[in-house]
Amino acid sequence: MPRTEKENHEADTAADGRYFRFLHGSTVEIIRDARPVEPPSHALFDFDGTVSLIREGWQDIMVPLMVELLAETGTGETVEELTAVVSEYVERLTGEQTIYQMIRLAEEIRKRGGTPREPLYYKRLYHERLIGSIHDRREGLRSGRIEPEAMIVPGADKALALLRDRGVVLYLASGTDEPYVIEEARLLGLDTCFGEHIYGARDDYRTFSKEHVIRRILELNGVGGASLIGFGDGYVEIANVKGAGGMAVGVASDEKGRSGRPDEWKRARLIGAGADVIIPDFCDCEVLFDYIWIER
Length: 296
Description:
The protein is α/β, with parallel strands linked by helices.
């Protein structure tokens, strides 16, 4: 009889000590057992794709815009060729501040003989298009026409509440501009979970990074990396949390379908970044938290 997908994962043992199993028939996939001796006291969350679905589909705005701008250099590359180039670096830089993708766009324009504008110009151009595309979502939330639950990664609100009940201090860090992160967290009714601990990108991009936020959390609270758990759907935050010595939970969210199944591209990328656990959403967060806090 053919093995199930879960059985295939469980049978897949890597040379570096990783192993794959699911907790109690749930959707919580353990890649490696990295539970700290003491449960974490601080939790860092990415925003878009990890908690919020307001900006779902942003790649469908960014990639065509960049392809359009690169095509203007007149190199004769096809749309397909340019799309492949752009998609690679957009995906690789996901989780970083948006400006880094625009810096790379400027470099690609220059490589093709063009004279690029300042990256901040491209960032603002992209953001104008993105805000136009998600205008109905934001206004629907603001007016009450759209319930916040429809724009939240399933179970994320429950997970935040459960962590707070356990005395964990919550932090939100996003590559999206900080004023928008604060506003959209408020539209989803999640801003009070994080209080003053909401951080996002700034025009002076050198003054912010997720790595910097992590370092400040540890320094200001006088704790080591083992006190930190991080949740994210991007390579950057997972790698940063692991680099600090924390436990990393990769959220391989199916943003468009909300199917409860992991997005396989995200899953593979998050494992490659060092994720200790993979979840498709937070619907089984109680099982995950019992694993971290109780099953020791």
